[in-house]
Design brief:
The complex is a heterodimer of chains A (637) and B (351).
Chain A lengths: L2 H6 L9 H12 L4 H7 L3 H30 L9 H36 L7 H23 L24 H29 L12 H32 L13 H35 L6 H14 L15 H13 L1 H17 L6 H24 L1 H7 L3 H31 L5 H27 L16 H31 L29 E2 L6 H4 L6 E2 L8 E5 L6 E6 L6 H18 L2 H17 L3 H6 L1
Chain B lengths: L1 H5 L4 H18 L4 H4 L10 H10 L19 H20 L5 H8 L10 H34 L16 H28 L12 E8 L2 E6 L5 E4 L1 E5 L4 E7 L4 E3 L8 E3 L5 E5 L5 E6 L12 E7 L1 H12 L6 H9 L7 H4 L4
Parallel strand pairs in B: 1-5, 4-10
Antiparallel strand pairs in B: 1-2, 2-3, 5-8, 6-7, 9-10
The chains are: A mainly alpha (637), B alpha+beta (351).
Chain lengths: 637, 351
């Protein structure tokens, strides 16, 4: 930084205190007014909330799809929806839940909470963060806009070739699907890079690697998995769209292409994807179990090692999705062993949480109750997963309702139950008001009974021969009763989410005031005000413990010397978190929004003509040049 | 035959045929009584099925251990132990309010992993129940641990946190025990799974009979190879008690061939040849359906495997291989009256 600039902004946080410091920082880090201000914001909290609300909107949409499917399957030979619409529904349900809800909702919580938990003022690369949100939003809107306009993918969330090829599925549905993948993957990769850099370089001084909250460790591993897994599916979806648009032959067996290549690439992403969706759930569980047991998590080191082990092992199991494609025997056996092995680090995590509850004094508030539901459901789902790891057993249950039951136990039990717990847990931080406990407990009862009624019978249906993705079944098969039961449970489960929505709306308006730390939790986000100021913390905390809010008492050490009128934050070393430099954090800018818009136009255009890429690239390049235009000039404008 | 698939609704003619096949089969084969024993009166909408099953109930008591005899597991005690589980699970749908017709499907064309009638499916069911009982036990232990942890000590919201709890030796021992036991159990299950792969991967000499199955959207073309080769659609007949190899290929997209009561599934993939071995251990009709999503009418892509006594099978085969007779007209007539000659209806469209 030039000496001239140093002179212009002299005031540092050591010169001020109390309300004045808070007001000045809040002005520096604040978001502009009006529509332009809203679209320009780079505040990780505002973007995190947008991410979360968008993801919940998609959850609702995907849930409605599920309810329509359950109504169709409630009776044999039903004609509520026809085969064509049913195939579109399950495609949209799976795609929405995996790509537009499951992945982004974890990122939403990471974007909001990680900077707070590591004690910094904004996420790393905040403009990229804004860009990623808009790209995600446009991708989701494109898919659902297409659905509304009857451009509907109907070949499953996995789009196996050759069914998804032009020969068997003309029309634009699969292209919209494939481009949606590109959108969400770009967004996910961007967020992951931000999280990794935030965690490794922006931690508060003193927060050494072994003082990072488990939540943050989990999100770090989660981000690394995304970085290594997502390119595989982007590659695959781009190859698919090129096969469909410009006549490449990647997946044409007759022309020397390989159909199984699609499956390998898709599942090389697809299995880590399960952990991409599940790990945020474990992050929530770690935070909530500690707070409500009134103890730090038992076995910090084994927990961190398990997370890292899961991160690596999750890349070694993808072939268990392909056990019935006719693999060589030894190859299949290898993937049985690796799939079994990942149960061990997961078992370690479960053990450590239960040990924490054992050693602590559990307080049964709604968040912990949902976490107990998580144990009940997820452990069952994990164990049925051990069955699927076995090649011979898998040949019987693969692509049946047994598998449907299994992964809903894992994903809903492993992610959605902790997610609801997390909503109850962090709602007071985000809004400043507590959610209603009584409604929360009713919601749990509905969700728990509804979920198990909906999904347990599916195990039996699968064993009795009911395959997945059938829009109806003959009455003689005798699957009617269990399907009716499952549909009834699904309705209950759906109702529990409407109850949560109602609770959120009412509590946001008239819930009890929360204060900064309503649960007396240990991690730094509870040191910020509720809701947090734009600058998160008036002074950057100095960390001497793994549970700073429990161990460091009221007299918390802080780090001083940051400028007040410029967006400055502390960059620290990777392992020891020694303060290295003061770094300027980018200010709000409209260019990320415009860049996302230009990118979206190019991507959507490319579905119709390859020339959209040719003509779209210069436009995107121009917008990016404006975005990255050197700061000193931008300041003078 | 082409319009059979292109019509988009191949189920209709099959429904009529299935009723008839079950009827015909029960008339000649008393062993079918084994699974019909489970039938309660008035459970099915179909009068043909209902009357036939009632007729064979009395024969069930003659062979109470019919299925057990066929378990190909060295440890007979273990098999019997698992059988108890299976009975319990079979009762479960009833307890859950399921339409008991599920059990009746044993008489219309069995389609259930839990009702194995073939060498491969037997082995897979044993493996399944082994895993299910071991893992179910682990689930119970985990839940018991969780429950104990909750009632062990309870706190109140205002209570200050204990921030630096001593790591107690018993918890470290429990941790080590958990780690060791899960490693041992998982290794054990892995070894069992490897053993079970014999049921999936063929080994040894070629089978007595090889049949080609070609998947189409949304029907199955079945080709009996050899000098007197012939074709059928959506129906395979095999002799009981001898291994049959099924060569799987597809004419369009990926399908998956799955007859749960006989063997696990295997995909039909363009440009790849897969081969599945099945061996039925008693006569019967076993239903299956495509298990890989294959487009619009995936739900209706069913197939039947009819296992016959060897001599009966040879007669059928010879009959099929014989020059075509003007059978189509006759078959259509008798479908209308729900009583076609057994072999005519399914193969009428094939030649």
């Amino acid at each position: 930084m030039s000496p001239a600039a140093e002179e212009r902004h002299e005031t540092r946080d050591t010169d001020l205190g109390g309300e004045e410091l808070r007001a000045r920082l809040s002005k520096t880090w604040g978001t502009g007014r009006g529509l332009i201000g809203a679209l320009s914001t780079v505040d990780h909290k505002i973007i995190g909330i947008r991410y979360a609300m968008t993801a919940f909107a998609f959850l609702l949409a995907g849930g409605i799809m599920a309810i329509i499917m359950r109504l169709q399957l409630a009776r044999p030979d039903s004609h509520l929806v026809d085969a064509e619409l049913y195939n579109q529904l399950f495609t949209m349900h799976g795609t929405t839940m995996m790509f537009l809800f499951g992945v982004p909702v974890g990122e939403a919580f990471a974007v909001y909470l990680v900077p707070l938990m590591v004690g910094t003022r904004n996420i790393a690369f905040p403009r990229l963060n804004a860009f990623s949100y808009y790209v995600y939003l446009f991708g989701g809107l494109m898919l659902w806009g297409g659905f509304a306009l009857s451009i509907r993918p109907d070949v499953g969330w996995f789009s196996y070739v050759p069914l998804a090829s032009l020969d068997f599925t003309p029309g634009k549905g699969p292209d919209y699907w494939a481009q949606m993948i590109t959108f969400t993957e770009v967004a996910a990769l961007a967020v992951s890079v931000e999280i990794v850099v935030t965690v490794l370089k922006q931690r508060a001084p003193g927060m050494t690697l072994d003082r990072i909250p488990l939540f943050v460790w989990t999100m770090l591993v989660h981000s690394f998995i995304i970085i290594f897994a997502m390119p595989a599916v982007m590659l695959a979806s781009s190859m698919l769209i090129m096969d469909r648009l410009v006549g490449t032959q990647f997946f044409n067996a007759d022309a020397g292409g390989d159909l199984l290549l699609w499956q390998h690439l898709f599942w090389f992403f697809g299995h880590p994807e399960v952990y991409i969706i599940f790990l945020p759930g474990t992050a929530f569980v770690s935070a909530i179990v500690a707070t409500f047991s009134r103890r730090p998590i038992f076995g910090y080191l084994p927990m961190v090692l398990s997370l890292i082990a899961i991160g690596f092992l999750s890349f070694g199991l993808w072939v268990h999705h392909m056990f019935v494609t006719g693999l060589p025997e030894v190859g299949a056996a290898f993937f049985t062993a690796s799939s079994m092995a990942i149960a061990i680090p997961n078992g370690v995590q479960i053990f450590c949480w239960i040990a924490t509850l054992w050693d602590g004094k559990p307080v049964l508030k709604t968040p912990l109750i949902f976490v107990l539901g998580f144990f009940f459901i997820f452990v069952a789902g994990g164990l049925s997963g051990v069955m699927l790891a076995s090649v011979p057993i898998d040949t019987q249950v693969h692509d049946t309702y047994f598998v449907v039951a299994h992964f809903h136990y894992v994903l809903i039990g492993g992610t959605l139950f902790p997610l609801v717990a997390a909503v109850y847990y962090w709602f007071p931080k985000v809004t400043g008001r507590l959610m209603d406990e009584r409604v929360g407990k009713w919601q749990f009862a509905l969700a728990f009974i509804g979920f198990n009624t909906a999904f347990f019978p599916m195990h039996l249906l699968g064993l009795h021969g009911m395959p997945r993705r059938v829009y109806t079944y003959p009455a003689e098969m005798g699957w009617g009763g269990l399907n009716l039961l499952a549909s009834a449970g699904a309705l209950l489960f759906f109702a529990s989410f409407l109850l949560m929505l109602w609770n959120m709306v009412v509590s946001a308006r008239s819930g009890a005031f929360a204060g900064d730390n309503p649960w007396d939790a240990e991690t730094l986000e509870w040191a910020a005000s509720s809701p947090p100021q734009p600058q998160n913390f008036d002074r950057i905390p100095y960390i001497t413990s793994r549970s700073p809010l429990w161990d460091q008492g009221d007299d918390k050490a802080v780090v001083g010397g940051l400028k007040v009128d410029e967006r400055e934050l502390v960059v620290t070393s990777i392992t020891e978190a020694r303060p290295d430099i003061r770094e300027e954090s980018p200010a709000p800018s409209i260019w990320p929004f415009l860049a996302a818009f230009a990118t979206a136009v190019a991507f959507i255009g490319s579905i119709y003509t390859p020339w959209a890429i040719t003509w779209g690239s210069p436009v995107v390049a121009i917008v990016l040049v404006a975005w990255f235009w050197p700061k000193t000039i931008e300041e003078n404008v | 035959m082409q319009n059979f698939g292109a019509g988009g609704h191949p189920r209709h003619p099959l429904t009529l045929w299935r009723i008839d096949a079950a009827k015909q089969k029960n008339a000649t084969d008393q062993a079918e009584g084994e699974e019909c024993r489970k039938v309660k009166s008035g459970l099915t909408e179909n009068p043909h099925i209902a009357s036939e099953t009632h007729g064979s109930v009395s024969s069930a008591s003659d062979q109470p251990n019919n299925t057990e005899r066929n378990w190909r597991v060295p440890n007979a005690v273990f098999a019997r132990f698992l059988k108890v589980f299976e009975r319990g699970a079979a009762a479960l749908p009833g307890l859950l309010g399921a339409h008991s017709c599920m059990l009746v499907s044993g008489c219309t064309g069995t389609q259930s992993v839990l009702d194995p009638h073939g060498r491969q499916a037997d082995a897979l069911a044993v493996l399944f129940w082994t895993f299910a009982s071991v893992l179910g036990f682990i689930w119970l232990v985990t839940m018991a641990g969780l429950l104990l942890a909750l009632v062990h000590r309870r706190g109140s919201p205002g209570e200050p946190a204990e921030t630096r709890p001593a790591v107690r030796p018993p918890m470290q021992i429990a941790f080590a025990a958990m780690l060791a036991s899960s490693a041992i159990i998982l290794s054990g299950l892995t070894v069992l799974s490897f053993g079970g792969q014999k049921a999936v991967f063929r080994s040894g000499a070629g089978a007595a009979l090889t049949i080609s199955v070609i998947g189409h959207q949304w029907w199955w073309q079945v080709r009996y190879e050899g000098d007197n080769g012939f074709e059928t659609a959506n129906e395979i007949r095999i002799p009981v008690g001898s291994p049959v190899d099924i060569k799987l290929a597809t004419a369009d997209v990926i399908h998956s061939f799955w007859i749960p009561s006989l063997a696990g599934k295997l995909d039909l993939i363009p440009g790849k040849s897969n081969e599945l071995r099945v061996e039925a251990d008693k006569p019967g009709t076993y239903r299956g359906q495509c298990a890989e999503f294959c487009g619009l009418q995936h739900a209706h892509m069913a197939i039947f495997v009819v296992a016959m006594e060897p001599d009966e099978f040879e007669r059928w085969r010879a009959n099929q291989a014989a020059p075509a007779r003007p059978m189509a007209h006759l078959a259509r007539q008798s479908v209308a009256s729900a009583g076609p000659p057994p072999s005519a209806a399914p193969s009428e469209s094939s030649q």
